Amino acid sequence: MSPAAYTVIVPARLASTRLPNKPLLDIGGLPMVVRVAKRLEHLTVAAQPVRVVVACDALAIQEACSQHGVQAVLTSPNHASGSDRLAEACDLLGLQGDDIGVNVQGDEPLIDPALVSAVANLLQDRAGASMSTAAHPITSAAEFNNPNVVKVVLDAASHAMYFSRAAIPFARDLPGQDWWQADGHSADFVGTARPLRHIGIYAYRASFLRLFPTLVQAPVEKVEALEQMRAMWHGHRIAVHVTPDAPGPGVDTAEDLERVRQIVAAGGI
Q1: Does 211 score more than 70 pLDDT?
Q2: What gap in Å lies between CA 16 and CA 21, rounded to an integer?
Q3: What is the pLDDT of residues 131-142, one digit of tens each?
Q4: C-alpha separations of 204 from 61, 124, 172, 185, 217 in Å
């Protein structure tokens, strides 16, 4: 099966409570959202070029993208969620059926293009999945127990079984221990059950991307405050690509912004 198109959609919203005008903040001489798009502009999936489009809610973002040769579509400023914005962008861009749209957040200027390609390829290969995403192994107790770190547990085919802010899976017989770092003598399930941190990048089939905002919110989605649980609650599969590497830092705070600026300045990324 060969989809008609691969499109990376970068949602960008001008309002931000912690960082005003976040998509337009300068990183190494480029607005942040432009830097995200530029980082992915030579991406290929299955030997096909990938279109990269910013889905924004303000003319200022669209104009900044245009000035740097980045395609942008203007979407409603009144969307309740990022999924609604993606669905509108899907319509504006004419994505059809099994076309694949990849959601890369506009505050991820260090995103690895290879990871984006892997997530898109995984969905292309999994006919029974409506979505795909990514995860990486957790290596510290602080990360495992942090409710701001979303964890995912997989089935035998690497489809998501559950996402949670809680410390999952919970090792009943090894309470209080960093059991995933144990050797085979003390925990022979470590290799297959070790905790995974979810990485917030998603690929969708266009047909599902249009359907998703119309689905009733799942009770567990409201409890966990995790939108992807809605897909699973309605019976849709999410395939998960496991990468050994943690992604580069995103930008949520002023401190994050300064750290990313320093990384870009030091490495010329």
Answers
A1: yes
A2: 7
A3: 999 999 998 889
A4: 24, 10, 35, 41, 18
Peptide bond before 169: cis, by omega within 30 degrees of 0? yes
The residues, any chain, with a CB within 8 Å of residue 263's CB and separated by 6 or more, are 110, 248, 249, 269
CA torsion, ordered 135, 55, 122, 109, to nearest 10 deg: -40
- Which tokens is 120 given? 């898109």
Nearest-angstrom CA–CA distance, 263 and 27: 10
Which are the contacts of 118, defined by CB distance < 8 A and separation ≥ 6?
134, 241, 243
Q: Residue holding tokens 């990048």?
A: 201
CB count within 10 Å of CB 159 equals 17
Q: Are 32 and 107 in contact (CB under 8 A)?
A: yes
Q: Which helix (H) or strand (E) holds 113?
A: helix 113-125
Query: How many residues make up the chain in this entry?
Result: 269
C-alpha distances in angstroms, 142 versus 139, 167, 182? 9, 10, 16
Question: What would the pLDDT profile of 105-132 be if each residue is shown by its tens digit?
Answer: 999 999 999 999 999 999 999 999 999 9
Please name the residue that has the structure tokens 């740097």: 68
Determine contact, residues 116/40, Cβ cutoff 8 Å: yes
CATH number of the domain at 1-111, please? 3.90.550.10
Q: What pLDDT sits at residue 265?
A: 93
Count CB atoms within 10 A of the CB of residue 142.
9
Residue burial 67-100, b: 16+ Cβ < 10 Å; e: rest = eeebebbbbeeebeebbbbbbbbbeebebeebbb
